[in-house]
Specification:
three-stranded antiparallel beta sheet; 8 strands; 5 helices; alpha+beta; three-stranded mixed beta sheet
């Protein structure tokens, strides 16, 4: 699974919601690769993402967007984002560490998880779609040394999340995290 690669070409007959496309892709993988997934809860160190302010106000770098911001399905069955404009800019003036358009807050947590290398669980209660941008200092000294001055003066991710997004990351030493485990998979069947 880590060394062999396959091209999978699939096309939906019509425009479909993202969740339905995800379920169709999962069924394709189950049928062709014999993929069997299981879920299990594990105790693990994690961060919980919550609202930072008691009044629920968010920071300057996260803005609610229309829930229908995923537009018509483009070539290949991939949803396009309506109203995509110029790149999002951080209120710090620095180049963003990462950003997103028409994203859920859960996907912000997923992005932070990838960047931090530890699970971040969304407990904000924020629904809908959002445009966001965040700029923070790299986590490693080696990367920090190679940055231009404007980037090198950035705040830590923990401060940036509060100041720019109006959210906070709280350490949860032994939270329960859901893992998706590949129980079975094999070489795919041909067309």
């Amino acid at each position: 699974m880590r060394t062999t690669r396959f091209d999978v070409n699939a096309k939906a007959g019509q425009a479909l919601p993202r969740e339905q496309l995800r379920r169709m892709a999962q069924r394709l993988l189950e049928d062709r690769f014999g993929l069997v997934l299981t879920k299990e809860q594990r105790e693990q160190e994690a961060y919980v993402m919550r609202l930072a302010r008691a009044d629920g106000r968010l920071g300057p770098d996260v803005r609610r967007t229309a829930d229908d911001c995923l537009g018509a399905v483009a070539r290949g069955g991939v949803p396009t984002i309506q109203g995509v404009g110029p790149p999002l800019q951080s209120s710090t003036g620095a180049r963003p560490t990462f950003s997103g358009r028409c994203a859920t807050i859960a996907s912000v947590a997923e992005g932070l998880s990838r960047n931090l290398g530890i699970e971040v669980v969304d407990q904000t209660g924020l629904e809908g779609r959002w445009d966001y941008v965040i700029a923070y200092a790299p986590l490693t000294v080696e990367v920090s040394a190679a940055l231009e001055p404007a980037q090198a003066s950035l705040r830590s991710v923990f401060v940036a999340v509060v100041e720019q997004l109006g959210l906070k990351l709280e350490r949860n030493p032994y939270g329960s995290v859901e893992y998706v485990i590949i129980a079975t998979a094999h070489a795919p069947t041909e067309n």
